Amino acid sequence: MIRRGFRCNDANPADPMPTRFVHAVHDARYTETWVEGMVVLHNPHALIELDPDLIPGARHEFLQPDGRIMSIVPEFHPLFSETLIIPPK
Hints:
By secondary structure, the chain is an all-beta fold. It has strands spanning 2-7, 19-24, 39-42, 59-63, 69-72, 78-84.
């Protein structure tokens, strides 16, 4: 099984465009968590603010007063992925 897709590259200001990734699911070092790809939109008018540390591994988005969005992005954040199942020959 092969998982492939595109991931965020926001940490690279010179080229912040998404980049491809390919992972071999059967590799002993492969991991995948339920929170990968999760995006938390923080309500700027919330009476009780949500601490981003309560949902580690998720991307957190904060609307700023000037309309811009400030993001906290984990090191690996997939935007899209698919898993290919390749049967043995």
